[in-house]
Amino acid sequence: MSKLLVKPKARSGLVQDITPESAGWTYVGFALNRLKPRETTSGEAGDKELCLVLVSGKARVSVDGEDFGELGERMTPFEGQPYAVYVPKGSTWRAEATTDLDLAICSAPGGDGFRAKVIRPGTHPQMIRGKGTNTRYVTNIMPENDGSAQSLLVVEVITPGGHTSSYPPHKHDQDDLPVESYLEETYYHRLNPPQGFAMQRVYTDDRSLDETMAVEDGDVTLVPKGYHPVAAIHGYDSYYLNVMAGPRRIWKFHNAKEHEWLFTGI
């Protein structure tokens, strides 16, 4: 199995737990907690900032004792936009599930001067990106222009069955602004129906890294560098939650030259 593919380690509780140390990089962390009603999870941000994403279900969430009330409205990640909560550096947080809950904890190095806040559905409108069988539906949760974080970029994407996304292939592995930014990235994958699978390739121009993975419901893929397109298999819609972070909170990517014709050719 590819070292870039991380399978769920449990059916409930802490299902995924990816740290910079386990991924072998510097910036991005990702965890997924699966809870039953009345079960709780909590933590301390420490020197990191967090984005808690209610992938599915509802929860009562608090940060530093401030109760944000019950949040969430979708029961699967394929039913509309998410609720999320930004947790700044140095804060403590707690979530109590009020329904079955999948809660993602996205993390990256934090900074001073940011405040906890709820990010509600509709804060950033869903975008349709691409055309034909490259059409997908993108919802920014924490985009680079929101001014509300030091490092974190968080976005989720729905790709209909038979379509591609993160395509034409692009990369962001060079700290070379304004041409390209360096960003590590995780993909948390879900499928509808859940017995399906999708394909993801992670590769570099010189093919020193070239991995193609069949990703299943609940898998995480790591993108330390290189291009990283996704293909959703016919009959199974794909959802993924992306977490990106690097030395600067800017998403500036470089397209694979041999595939650039796709932007105008079809």
TrEMBL record:
Q: Which GO terms describe its biological process?
A: inositol catabolic process
Q: Which InterPro entries does the protein's record reference? A: Deoxy-glucuronate_isom_IolB (IPR024203), KduI/IolB_isomerase (IPR021120), RmlC-like_jellyroll (IPR014710), RmlC_Cupin_sf (IPR011051)
One GO MF term on file is:
glucuronate isomerase activity
The alphabetical list of record keywords is: Isomerase
Look up the domain of life of the source: Bacteria
Q: Does the keyword Amino-acid biosynthesis apply?
A: no
| Name recorded for this polypeptide | Myo-inositol catabolism IolB domain protein
Species of the source: Sinorhizobium fredii (strain NBRC 101917 / NGR234)
